[in-house]
Amino acid sequence: MANTKSKLLTEWDTLHNNGPFPLKLLYQTKLEGEREMPKKLDRYNDVALEIQRLIRESHHAGEGFRAYGSAWSMNTIASHKDRMHFNGFMNLSMPIRAADCHPNNTYDPTNLFLFECGNTIKEVSETLAENGKSLKTTGASSGQTLAGCVSTGVHGSALDSGSVQDYVVGLNLIIGPNPNDIVYLEPKSKPALSDAFIQTLNSRVIRFQAKPMHKERAIGLIIIKYLSIHTLMSRIVW
User: Is 86 helix (H, G, I), strand (E, B) or coil?
Assistant: First the structure.
């Protein structure tokens, strides 16, 4: 099972030392080893249960809970005075098979990948390169986590292409401690994953009305995890 270490602290700081900020408890969760749990989806779902346990623990203590990645954010929003969780060890990734796509999927299945929230841009790029793909835009640095890049809109853009958040075609989020609190979001007009595959993530699907992406050549990333993100992305150069 996924393992979490807890550290009692009085303060915490970002990589760029724009703190320090007050903090009571720091969590660091590592996934179960591949030898004990060979299937990536099993490890993915296992660590989701661990994150829900931590959320429940924080709620029962009457304290807040916030996740962070590489701690490159240069503002106070990146901190919480009660409890924080380091996402960097949660970095699973996998390609999406054509059989796992929605019947109305219009994306090239070879452009769809599932990335867990702790993947850094470097790790995303390495995974894509192994599959003959790449991000269409990228900045000079590659240490930011995917969840951080998507939530802050950083890491490069071009005249006809946005930055990392524009490559996302679906989000799997842990929004609370209960069994029904894992949700997969994607536009109703551009479904990517089949309901059957979404069920393997122990998620309930919410398809919403949204404007379609302005480019058809996309690579799909799936960012997933608790107000935590795991992402399905689309938009890669090949």
Answer: strand
From 39, 62, 86, give the residue that closes a domain.
86
Nearest CA to 214 among 149, 154, 167?
167
129 and 212 assigned to the same domain: yes
Alpha helices for the chain (secondary structure H):
40-60, 121-130, 146-152, 195-200
Query: In a 3-state reduction of DSSP, which class is residue 149?
Result: helix
Please write the tens of the pLDDT for every residue from 40-81.
999 999 999 999 999 999 999 999 999 999 998 777 777 899
* pLDDT tops 60 at residue 234: no
Q: What is the mean pLDDT of residues 2-8?
A: 97
What is the DSSP-derived secondary structure letter of residue 115?
E
Considering the domain architecture, whether residues 80 and 56 belong to the same structural domain is answered as yes
Q: Would you say residue 232 has pLDDT above 80?
A: no
What's the rounded mean pLDDT across residues 7-36?
A: 95
> Residue 17 corresponds to which amino acid?
N
Q: What are the CA-CA distances from residue 155 to residues 89, 209, 222 (Å)? A: 21, 27, 18
The whole domain housing 19 covers 3-86
Cα separation of 232 and 113, whole Å? 6
Residue reference for tokens 């999927």: 105
Tokens 């807890």 appear where?
A: 6
Whether residue 156 is found in the same domain as residue 179: yes
